[in-house]
Amino acid sequence: MKDARSAESLVMLLGGRTGAIDATVPPVVFVAVWLASGESVPAGVVGALIAAAAVAGWRLRRGTPPRAALVGVLSVAVAALIVLRTGRAADFFLVQLASNAASALAWAVSIAVRWPLLGVVVGTVLGQRTRWRRDPALLRAYSRGSWVWVLQYVIRVAVFAPLWMADQALALGGARVALSWPLVAACLAVSWWVVRRSLPPDHPGLRHPR
């Protein structure tokens, strides 16, 4: 791991900052407009949809593939349909709560079946396909690093679920901001450290599976 080329930042590999910011803007706008309009759910939904469209346009101008940009708009649209149906502002965050629970389960299962998602993502970015799985040291390191990602999603669920059940839309908006990029950045840093510490000293690094 002493080779400079192998010291890739997981921030660069996974692009955490952009995704976290993009996912945060529409919920924050929803809460802000909802409050400013006298707690009008339809007004909050309109604001969130406009914000989602603006974020998608910004991402497209930055060269993001159309499918990736549209996924964000679709998730906001689903959240909008749910909250318009229930009339309960906290339900705007139900999709995010469910997606974090599903993500925690998916990452945990990937570790259990020896296909840790951290290895899948980094291996794909580095053009290794599945060669990293034939390296026992890398497989072990990616498995340990993936547990950090499981913890990230569990933390979100543990915070979001009680606030959602209590119908605390404003607190959910604040939690969404606090647990977006700061938590992703911490997760990236810690998982990178765990992967590096898990590899033996003589290992050639992530770019060179044995």
From TrEMBL:
Domain of life: Bacteria
Keywords: Membrane, Transmembrane, Transmembrane helix
Transmembrane keyword on record: yes
Chain ranges passing through the membrane: 12-35, 41-60, 67-84, 104-126, 147-166, 178-195
The protein, known as: DUF3159 domain-containing protein
Organism: Phytoactinopolyspora halotolerans
Lineage: Bacteria, Bacillati, Actinomycetota, Actinomycetes, Jiangellales
